[in-house]
Amino acid sequence: MSRLAKTLEIRTSPHIVSGYDVDTVMFNVVVALAPAAAFALWAFGWAALLALGVAIGSCLAAERAAARVAGKPSPLGDWSAVVTGLLFGLTLPPGLPLWMVAVGGGITIVVGKAIFGGLGFNPFNPALVGRAVLQAAFPVAMTTWIPAFAAERFRDLPGSLLALPFASPSYDALSGATPLAAWKFSRQATEVSDLAFGFVGGSSGETSGVLILLGGLYLVARNMMSWRIPVAVLAAVATLAAVLHQLDPARHAGAGFMLFSGGLMLGAVFMATDPVTSPITPRGMWLFGAFIGVLVVVIRTWGGMAEGVMYAILLGNAVAPLLDRVTQPRVYGTSPPKAER
Amino acid sequence: MSLLGLRTFRHGVHPPEAKDETSGSPIRQFPFAPLLVVPLVQHAGKASLPVVRAGQEVARGQRLAVPDGTLSVSMHAPASGVVRELALAPSIGGRMVPAVYLEPHPGSTQEVADGAPCPLATATREEILAAIQDAGIVGLGGAAFPTHVKLAIPEGKSVDTLILNGAECEPFLTTDHRVMLEQSADIFTGIRYLLKVTGAQRVIVGVEENKPDAAAHLRAELPPDLPATVELLRVKYPQGAEKMLIAALLGREVPSGGLPVETRCLVVNVATAAEIGRLLPHGRGIQERVITVGGPAVRRKGNYRIPIGTPLRFLLEHVGVDEARLERVFLGGPMMGAAVSSLDISITKGTSGVIAFDDASAARTHVPVYPCIRCGHCLDACPMFLNPSQLGLLARREEYTRMAEEFHLLDCFECGSCSFVCPSHIPLVQQFRVAKSMVRKARAAG
Fold first, then answer.
1. What is the DSSP string of A314-337?
2. CB neighbours of A199 closer than 8 A, spacing ≥ 6?
3. For an interface test with B, which of A16, A119, A283, A335 has the most B Cβ atoms less than 10 Å from its Cβ?
4. What is the pLDDT of residues B291-305, one digit of tens each?
5. How confident is the model over B133-189, as pLDDT tens digits?
6. CA distance B385 to B141
7. Which residue of A29, A254, A299, B291 has the smallest Cβ count within 10 Å?
8. Complex prediction ipTM
């Protein structure tokens, strides 16, 4: 018998892994966002395609450049910059000048993520950091909306899109106000069914609540997203909105309107659930979601702006570490269990 | 906690079971290697003291070494033959340990030498405990803790329930499954000894539902006078961990840092009970044990009764391995088993499985490590309700004291569930092992 003389690999247990990877999760988030992104392309035409393309491209370029400066290997293979870029692009008004999109994409990655150490270390949702900077820097462009389903959307590009840096963009056609602004500033209601299916103006990815929910269900079914956070956000918004509507229907829109208008669906399903910037404990997730939901209604109702999802989530991100701290799970054997047999 | 009528614990993971290739294979006797190397530390505790010398002829089952104090057990000759030398031998932990090198006689009939029997009917509690220590019995589930120490109930404590652990939740392993099917009579005799020693009023045999034949067989053969029940458990890792089994079957929690006896129960592996029932009536000692030999690189997979001291090289050569593709060998299951650095290591009483991975299975763990994205899957996996994500971040910063004092590091029993699910492939368990040893070192230094 030949003597078995093989060099063996030594490794610590466990010797098997679940086959579930960061890059698989990130890729599936892109898959889950695809229906909402496709709807944006259909509703806004080439303008949305260009905007999303520039958003993703600028995020990838910034990610690559930041890694090079930090002397790290290229992290593009983990798909996280694609997710961030896509989410960032979907929060923008579709007619936003492309140079602003590119600047915002760079800020998203560099300020939102890279300076904290990259993937896993950023305290705030990077896409919302980028959007918040654009909102502060270009308030008019960020609240000017081109109409959805314009007849010429696959023929012409909106003039504003190709505006030169620092020139005032010119708009060919304006949809006027988003449903939220219409309600807030002129008490003009929009049909909830139009909101749910997305036949309204707004940011690229914010219009079709149903498609966003489908994407979320896909991720929850694949165990790639916490279901607790979106449920908590939406339940808090619906409850608070319903109570306020009962008290004063003329001043407060109903729960359905609140749920499906503006960026709530995109925010609740794809932004608040960013694991890096949300609590990790189950109870922390519930509190985090409820906190965001309440803030959304408060900002929308009593704030100076029509929409409050972005600031609500950023504030939620700020309290997430605290929520984790006070909601650590009870460790086995550290206090008497309830029922014995 | 029960769901769909079956009991289980909370959290845990579902690794692929990988048991089909050996669960149907009856236990077969393994041949004797030309040289058996019997380490004198096969258990958690002090090395046994040898009572044989080089050149001495020994009979199979004869005592080779006696216990050195309470936390130690006897060792017996796995074969009739001649003691070649008493020398150091490599062990799984990497240390060299004292061992008896025994050369079996090729012509011997290998009859097992009987000793003084321990009669169930008349033996006292103390006599049974002494017989268990004398038979060299340790926990055969893998921990190899001396069984007589576990069964010695401290003054002022009592036990109402004895749990027999037939969960066998580690993938690949099917030894307990086969022992339940083939040695039910030994198990029941063992239970009678255990009831007498512990004073427990009832016995629950916990079996995962992926072994319905074993549970049905035990139920069918159960003597009517035994106060025992067989409970099916949901298939979930680490169901066979003592603390999880107690939570699943009794809804009790072992206090942090405490022992099961504090919850008035004791957990004994089914294979350990079977050995007690098989050996004590004849005054014999452990000279072999049932081991699952499997994994993708093994040709003749199966369950074998293998002499203690069989070197891994002989074992693998005998079952046949694809040498070109052989990559990793570990003892025990893939979740908690330790990889061996040398095939000169021999089988001990704590070896429940020998699993050989080929290059393809080994490559599945050769994956890039990403930073923690705080997905929380490790929190949902940890059966102790720890926060492995937080512990991992603290380990990177070497904040070991904080890990222990604020985040219950020492409650981690290294089941591997967190590492198994981590999408970033962070070696969490390894970080925790390092951290625990640093904490213990710091505490010992005062």
1. HHHHHHHHHHHHHTPPPPTTSS--
2. A148, A149, A207
3. A16
4. 999 999 999 999 999
5. 999 999 998 789 999 999 999 989 999 999 999 999 999 999 999 999 999 999 999
6. 23
7. A254
8. 0.93
**Token code pair at residue B405:** 């004092």
**Across the interface, do B390 and A337 touch by the CB < 8 Å criterion?**
no
Instruction: Give the structural domain span for A279.
Output: 22-323
**What is the residue whose two structure tokens read 């409850």?**
A239
Cβ pair B420:A17 closer than 8 A:
yes
CB pairs under 8 A between A and B: 186
* Phi–psi pair at B265, nearest 5 degrees: -145, 165
Our count of domains for chain A comes to: 1
Six token digits for residue B437: 């040893």
Do A281 and B379 count as a contact with CB atoms less than 8 A apart?
A: yes
pLDDT computed for residue A72 by the predictor: 86
B296 in A contact zone (CB under 8 Å)? no
Rounded CA-CA distance B410/A41 in Å is: 54
- Are the C-beta atoms of residues A272 and A216 closer than 8 Å to each other? no
Task: Please tell me the predicted confidence (pLDDT) of residue A1.
Answer: 45
Look up residue A9 and give its DSSP letter: P
Instruction: CATH number of the domain at A294, please.
Output: 1.10.3430
Segment A206-225 shows an average pLDDT of: 90
Model pTM above 0.90:
yes
Whole-number pLDDT of residue A177: 67
User: Which domains are present in chain B?
Assistant: 2-24+121-282 (3.40.50.11540), 377-445 (no CATH)
Which among A164, A145, A146 is positioned nearest to A156, based on CA atoms? A146
